Amino acid sequence: MRTKVPEKLIKIIDDIDAEGNASLTRLTVLKKWFEAPGRKNNNRLRAFAVWVARRALSRKGKTAGAAGELFSEARALFGGLGKVCPTLQAKAAADLHQRLRDFQNEFKSQQWGAVRIINNWNLLLVEQALAI
User: Fold this and answer.
1) Which domain holds residue 126?
2) Residue 22 lies in a domain
3) 3-class DSSP assignment, residue 7
4) Residues 6+ apart with CB under 8 A from 19
C-alpha cells in the first residue's frame, strides 16, 4: 500500500527551500519515514544523510584554510555517490568524520553545561551526515 509520505517530504523540502525552515511538528513525518523496524541498515536514512551533506557542500561562498580543505575532501568523497543507494568508503568516511569533529571540537561552559562552539554550520551538517 502506497503512503503519502513522499509527497509530505517534498512539501517539507519545498518549505525549507522557500523559507529556510519547516515546522517542527511537520518534521515528525521524517521520523516514521526513516524508521527501520528490525533492520540495522536503513537505506532511506543514509540516502537522506547524503542528500543533506550534498546540499551543505553545494552552498555558495568561499571558505579558506583548514575549512576549505575539509570542504574539498568532503566534496571528493560525496561526489561519485549514487542517489538511491549511496555507499561511502567506510575508512575514508570515518577518517573525514573524525577530522570534521576535531576541527570544531571547542566547548564553552555555560550555566547548564558544556556547549559546542560551531563556526561552520555546513561542515557540521556534513559531519552529522557522516555519523549516520
Assistant:
1) 36-131
2) no
3) helix
4) none
Q: Which residues contact 48 (CB under 8 A, 6 or more apart)?
A: 30, 34
Instruction: Fill in the DSSP letter of residue 1.
Output: -
Distance CA 48, CA 123 (A): 16
CA R_g for the chain: 16
- Domain assignment present for 44: yes
Q: What is the pTM of this model?
A: 0.67
pLDDT tens per residue across span 46-84: 888 888 898 889 887 777 788 889 998 999 888 877 766
- In a domain, residue 98? The reply is yes
Phi, psi of 106 (to 5 degrees): -105, 135
Q: What DSSP character marks residue 116? A: E
Q: How many domains does the chain have?
A: 1
Cell of 113: 553545561
On whether residue 18 sits in a domain, the answer given is no
> Taking CA 32 as the corner, what is the angle to CA 26 and CA 37, rounded to the nearest 5 degrees?
170
Q: What is the pLDDT of residues 23-34, one digit of tens each?
A: 777 777 677 666
